[in-house]
Write the structure tokens for this entry.
Amino acid sequence: MTPSRHGSAHIEFPNELDVLITREFDAPIALVFDVLTKPEHVSKWGATPPDQMTECSIDLRVGGTYHHVFVADDGTECSFRGTYLDVEPPTRTAETWLFDGWPDTEAVETMQLHETDGVTTLTMRLAFRDKAGRDHMTRFDGQQDSFDAMEDILRSLLDLKGTSPS
Amino acid sequence: MARSPTTSDVFNAIAEARRREILDALTAGEKAAGTIVAGLSLSQPQVSKHLRVLSEVGLVQCRAPGRHRLHSPEPARLRPLHEWLARYEQIWNERLDRMDDYLKELQNRESSSDT
């Protein structure tokens, strides 16, 4: 039994536009690719409990679209959508990334996989078109966080600027 | 769209690689701008400009005991950033840990159906 890799994701902000996330999995590349790109799999792990994933559609081909909808406990919805720019199973996909909470923001997400000795490394790069876009990401992360947590992060940034309301 | 200017945001202040180099140089101890210039491949005006940004967000403090202004880092100002990053890392870890668990579950299912 291999030791747990929980908590081992590595996050970097290599420049002003990108967010880079790296994580290893003890699984063959083909399976990791499927778990990342097939709706029957993504719908199983995509939502952060108690949030639920109410829609997960993925048309995995160049020009195809995806749409993911999450509903929080209080009924608040958020969704992500985009179009595939590149699909090369099982090593790579590139897709546009649009979050309904940040209508001014466009990004391209690239997922790259490679396998060595049964260990598959996932590298996800989220490249924002402009700095205002990535600034959203560095203020709070809407992708899998509840709106409460976003508010906490916003608050801590307000504290940082010395304008705490409390 | 409203967005904070670079100088009011710690995150943006340290997003610039040169400013991180300057902060790194200062962690070894208080320094005059001239000493920083000598240690890095930057011009005096560039170093002054970066120091101004860093001190405007409170990451660097200045004092002028004699002829030279001395600059020192204020690491406490990085703490909210550190906390924020830890939280961000936690969010991503939770997500990818769930994916990891799901992968394990699938593999266990596969290996038990093989036997």
Remarks:
- The interface with chain A takes residues 1, 3-4, 8-12, 15-16, 80-81, 83-85, 87-89, 91-104, 106-107 of chain B (CB under 8 Å).
